[in-house]
Records
---
Amino acid sequence: MLIKTPPGWKISENEVTPEEIYVNRRALLKTAGLSALGLAVTQTVPEAWAKEEIKKLNFKRNDLYKVTDKNRPFTKEELSTHYNNFYEFSLDKGEVSKKVMSWKLETPWKIEVQGLKGPDKTFDVDSITKLAGELEERIYRFRCVEGWSMVVPWLGFPLSDLIKKLEPSPKAKFIKFQTFSDTKIGSNMKNLPYYPWPYTESLTMEEAMNPLSFIATGMYGHDLPKQNGAPIRLVVPWKYGFKSIKSIVKIEFVEQRPVGLWEKLASEEYGFYANVNPHVDHPRWSQATERVLDGKFFPTKIPTLMYNGYEKEVAHLYKGLDLKKNF
Ligand code: MTE
């Protein structure tokens, strides 16, 4: 993200799965074989995609959250699961889904929680999901600070539901998330020794309690593939994608504003707020437009929307804030 410009995507439009059938992907795979989905896809990403052990989940779609804009097509699963930023594994977006193959997800996956009214707690993914409530599906726009974007059906629960159940200390002003820091899992961390690992990100409590803030445990009707942040990640759709931290192992409620990995590395490029804003450019490129992750060699360019199209829902959080300074 710091240095690289994404290459053109090589998978063409007719080689990928339409929205209507994504939920039936597993069944489709069994009955029709991979060739029905486009051999080119399987040639570029054969094993990573076919071997991923993913479980279909029960969920209801929350129709309050969908994307109806004509120029924002639903992103095909093959694309969003094979063009990934997960620096712990690789800087190459096409490599991440291959590099995660050897990662055996720790079961049960533990999440430590600190900064509560009561004592610290440790949950596993299932118990934290149950605590929050039922799984729901939401279709969100997702805009990376690098200038590419997608539209993804996430499965999970509102972060606010979890926070209410966790009962943070009344002193808490921020919520901080942390990814695993085991270099045996994310071997690329050793190649980037000057990065302030582990990956951390945070939100103000007001942002975290906004109904849009979401904890995802799945996408496209099944649990999260490892490359997309299994087994549990954050999704904050009005902020640049780097805020949406993957593979969470720790949640802390804190008084002081934490400084995340990207802000530590380059605060003049990756600010704390990281709200999608077409009027505030990245120092090295414009943020006025974005490239749709559509598989075309020359991806479709569309205008970027203020707060990624979620202005009504979140603009009130930033009233009176100078958005040029607080980017
Ligand atoms: N979380 C961790 N732990 N490591 C990362 O490198 N990359 C971020 C974010 N979360 C990242 C991360 C960035 S820059 C983006 S754009 C999104 O994950 C990409 O999510 P995706 O691969 O599911 O599209």
---
Amino acid sequence: MSATLLDGKAVAARTEAELSERVAVIKAKTGQTPILATILVGDDPASATYVKMKGNACRRIGMESLAIELPASTTTRQLLGTIDELNQNPDVHGILLQHPVPSQIDERACFDQIALEKDVDGVTCLGFGRMAMGEEAYGCATPQGIMRLLEAYDIPISGKHAVVVGRSPILGKPMAMMLLGKDATVTICHSRTQNLPDLIKQADIIVGAVGRPEFIRAEWIKNGAVVVDAGYHPGGVGDIELAPLVERVAAYTPVPGGVGPMTINTLIQQTVISGERSLGQD
Ligand code: NAP
């Protein structure tokens, strides 16, 4: 069997072309450009790179980004104040708070300070709850990007057994709710799960969101499964041992070039949607 490569890079590039046109229409009709505000706290190099990539993606589609950099010593109160200012700034259509923030900051409180209509990264409890209930909300960017990728390749989800390994607020949990929302039967696994290999063996769709290189072994995954790997580690490997699988699964996300490009693409897509709504162009 020849597996389908779920090419996030290609889907993201196609979507960028479409988003560029939508941004041009907003500009022509309103004279305004959607703006994504990015907040980077501290000097973690990986976080700085992610924020830079998000700013670059905005510019590629003709959108602007407002980069806010705060020192590592920033307090929760100061960060809440910055988010309040961005909430009230009518020129800002989306707010991204780069995760993780330094440990003295209450990250959850800061995520939840983001106004729902500007929560284009889908990190607020309110947005999560609305999404989980099937109400309108911007999806959390990484799992929403995965759902868009599965949809782009017409991967059947309804009635399938999806096993999500990981339950973090920005990935595993919303991933599970999104798959449930598309009528999958969902098993969520985490560090206390017993018999992980046995559960994974039942998966029609397996999502690796563990944060440990090749932690999920190829031998645990059944023939014909759909394999989604959110991880990315030095050496170009993900959370799933992929090489032995490519000949015997139905579809898989490459690492890199699968989930990663879809995350940023979803963030900018949701910012464009927010810009269209706020500027009366939706
Ligand atoms: P995280 O917050 O560290 O969460 C990891 C999850 O894995 C936790 O729920 C943890 O369980 C679970 N886990 C840890 N050890 C386990 C074990 N032995 N067996 C089963 N489950 C175990 O990580 P994250 O932020 O969700 O990220 C997960 C992966 O996705 C990472 O590789 C990260 O780099 C990647 N990621 C990629 C993107 C992207 O845009 N491509 C975005 C975000 C994350 P407990 O809850 O019990 O601790």
